[in-house]
Every structure is written in C-alpha cells, then in structure tokens.
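Supplementary Methods, section 5.1.

A reviewer requested that the exact input to the structure prediction be made available. We therefore reproduce it here, unchanged from the version used in the analyses.
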Amino acid sequence: MKKYLLWMSVAAFLAGCAGQTEKGEFKIEGHFTNLPLGPVVLEELTLDNLKVVDSTSVKDASGKFTLKGMVPEQGLYRIRFDNGKFILLSLDAGDMKLEGDVNNLDALKVSGSEATSELQQFLQDISKQSIALTEEMRKVDSLHGAKVPDSVFQPQLTAIQKKEKDFEQEFFNMAEKTKNPANAVFAISQVRNPEEIISHKQIITGLTTRFPKNILVKSMTDKIAELEKNNQLSNGDAAGGGDEEATAVKVGMEAPDFTLPDPNGKMISLKSMRGKYVLLDFWASWCGPCREENPNVVKAYQQFKNKNFTVLGVSLDKTKDQWLAAIAKDGLTWNHVSDLKFWDSSVVPLYGINAIPTNFLIDPQGKVIASNLRGDELIAKLKAVLK
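The structure derived from this sequence is encoded token-by-token as follows.
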C-alpha cells in the first residue's frame, strides 16, 4: 500500500544542477519554536547516499541556527533535526531564512529562496491530498481484508485507482510549469508508476529542452531512457531503481538507529540488536498487503530464529488494540515497536518510507545488506547469509 509524498526518496536524486542562481556561497538562518537541543545537519541528497554539507548544534532555547557553505548549482538538500524531522530545500546561492514550529513544519515560512518557497508550497498542497487519498486507500484495503463481495469492492477499487491516477497528474503538472529544474525532477521522481512516466514522455523531453545543461535533469532522463530500453522499468523505478530506491536507506548504508516503545511500553532500540541479522519490517494491521506477507515472515523467522536471526516489527498503526490483535492473529512472535502515530511516526522520515510493507535486512554490524525481500526471496537470502 502506497503512502504518497510528504518527503522525498533520497536515492532518487543526484543533487547539484544548473539552476537559475549562479553558483556561490549560501547562508541559511533558522528560527524555530520547539526546536530540540542537539545537532542540526544540512545534507545534500545524492544518488548513492547522504552527504553532510554543514552542521551546527542547538544548545539553548533560542531556537536559532545558521548553516553556510558553497553550492555549485541549484540542488536538492534537507535540514535534519535531532528528532528525525527534516525540511526539504531547493538550494541556490544566496541568503535564506526559515521560520516556524518544528511540530508544524507544514506552516514553514521561507524567505530569500523562490525555489524553496515553491517546493514547500507544493509539498503542503500535495500532502493534504495525500492524507485524504491514503485514508481512502486504507478503507479500501480494509474492505479487501474483510472479504466483502466483489460487487461492493470492485467499484470502490476502480474509483480509488482513478483518484490515484489524477493525483499522479499533479506531479507532472508541477514539472511542466516550474522554472526550477530541481523541483521538476523532484516532482517526476515521486511518481511510482512507470507507465505514467512513459505516457508523459513529452514532459520529460520538455525538461531536457528547457534545462539543456542541467545535470540533474540529464541524469534522470538518461536513467529512464536506459531502463525503458532494457525493459527493466518496473513499479517504483521512476528515477532509477527498484523498490529499494523508493526509500532513503539503501543497501550498503548503515541502518539509522531509533528507539520506540514495545506493546508494554519498554523502549527498544535497533542498535540493541547488533550482533544478529535483523529483518526490520515496516507494516500495519490495516495494511492488506502487509497481512498477506506476514505468513512468509513467520515462516522465515521459524526457520532461522536459532541461527543468529531475528525480526523487529515496526508498525504504522494508530490504535494499540488493533495492532496487538493483528500480532496475535498472525502469530508474529518477535519484537514489535510503534509510537502509534500512523504516517507521522518518527521512523518514517528517518527511513524515507512511502509504502508498506517495506523491509530491510541488516547484518550484525548494522549495515543494510538487502531490502524488500518477499516470500521465497527472503528465505533464499537468509539461507545465503546464515550458512
């Protein structure tokens, strides 16, 4: 089940491109209420990983910070706070000011950067539609799980599929009208349906014409053309990857640590499981595809639990009773954690999750060695690493 937007998939981008503002120095001044004490990090979003550009530390309640550096061309960046929340930027040279409440970043005030202002307004508009669409999809998933008659289920499924397609059109509209190439690529890269991308090929071609020297645009268009030519473009490959590319965490990266409560309120951290192979499994009781995949995870757990392997389930549920009932009904006898905040869970932006089920296989040193393993693929991978 998809969760549309609210953040970007880091692996979808090659940051740094020819923008409207010449390359040079930038300065970002932030002033936020409810800003947690601790590090504030500015990261460039690259094809392979996150690159730290600058960082500072908030040591008092003033809520102020300053970040500086050089930008070669307009690119896609993010400011990450110590609580896992972040702000997306379309960064040019020059001075930018950001003001707001860390607990309500949808109301962020931007000055000094038209590109970032446009990006943030787009995010706000799309997120409202996203929330409504996700809720409707959840209801349709629930009908499927309840095994209602097809005469009831199919019309609603058809209706939600049309709304999903209409929603995707908003991203193409943004790419077509924006004067900022970074924002155009951001919009296109959020479309998870490759058939939709191919059907809007004239917009992709238009980006190349409008921004002929833009590295970011060229990277995206070349990758799409290569995948199309080799017949490798599969669901979720909008900007050069498979399911793995739909998340911020990729194979080869260290899995970001987090701490969440289990059903009894005990705080469990991912790092506490170092020394074992861990399947980090993002799911929810309301997610039909998740529940359908659970028997495969149970099978893998039972087969390998005595071979230095375990599972950590991270639920995007909202209701504790439903979460616990699903755990019991599906026989999920491993550790489970959740802050019961639905898509507002703190781990969602940390891992860039935009669909569930999603999983990551982590080695004993904490490195991600595979992602989105399903069914027999999970068993095969575990057999290979747990010799």
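Residues 119-234 form one domain. These observations are discussed further in the main text.
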